[in-house]
Amino acid sequence: MNVSRESTAYTALITAAVVWGGSVVAQKIMLGAFSAVEVSVFRGLGALGILIPLWWWQEQSSIKWGSRDLGILTVLGLGVVGNHLLILYGLHYIDAGAAGVIIGASPAITAFLSSLILKDVPFGRVWLGCAVSFVGVAFVSGVNASNTSGESPVLGGTFVLLALVSWALYTIGSRRVMERMSPLTVNWTTLLISILIQIPLLWTDHKVLKLGISSIPVSGWMALAYVIVFATALGQQAWLYGVSGIGPSRAGVFTNLIPVSSLMLSLVILGEALDFVKVIGIVLVLSGVWLVTRSSSM
């Protein structure tokens, strides 16, 4: 593989992890003013307003696909729906910190399913790096896990875990599609399909549509803007680019950086303390990323 392309892929994956680190908190804030479906639909519509003009400017070409491609993209769109909605419903019942701990399990899920479906990297090569990263996630996020429960942590945790399975399947499926389409094309088309699937759900799950736009506080608008620009448009595009460059098994471990980025953002923005235990966690997470990258490239 081209060294420059591989380095760019790693940079893209780190970028996605950093911006996603703040998205869990932002979505938690949004749920005070929006319903879960409204958050998902509004973030998707806003991101499309960025992605489609960018796609047209970069590629300037019409989409050429057959019925098979449309079917695959529809299935991937369901993966986007599952990931977005299940995390949002999970945040109704579990605190954002606890959800971040569960998200740390994403690399193992992605690596396992990818090795099972694509057989691209034997799971035996990546398990050690995943395990080291999981210990790091426990240090970074799990230290205070006993103080984070939420209304129903078991139900909320189950929703978040299922969301990770949806994202793993989306990641694996998108790798095959990106052999024929660009990451940008896959990004906006699957996002559009996910919105079309969710629009009928607005009839049963809505808040702003009932109370009006005036019910949204400034914090809700700011959180929505963050989720649209960074978590959905920039983050998802960077993630797909990274997956296309190094594969889903090696890319999956980078989601372990999400709790780390959340910690660093809270340090910079909220002025929270960074103690020694958390520093150890950061070192372990980054070491796990290195181990997986090194082992899977052998």
What does this structure look like?
This protein has 298 residues and is mainly alpha-helical. The protein has 14 helices and no strands. The chain has helices at residues 3-21, 23-30, 36-59, 67-93, 96-103, 106-117, 123-140, 153-177, 183-198, 208-211, 218-246, 248-252, 257-270, 276-296. Helix 4 (67-93) runs antiparallel to helix 8 (153-177) and helix 7 (123-140) runs antiparallel to helix 14 (276-296). The longest helix is centred in the last third of the chain and has 29 residues, at 218-246. It is globular and about 50 Å long. The model is unreliable at 142-149 (pLDDT under 50).
Provide the low-confidence segments as ranges. Answer: 142-149
% residues in beta strands = under 5%
Distance between the termini: 12 Å
Radius of gyration from the alpha-carbon trace, in angstroms: 18 Å
Largest beta-sheet details: none
Q: What is the number of E strands?
A: 0
Q: Return the structural class.
A: mainly alpha
The residue-averaged pLDDT reads 79
The total of helices stands at: 14
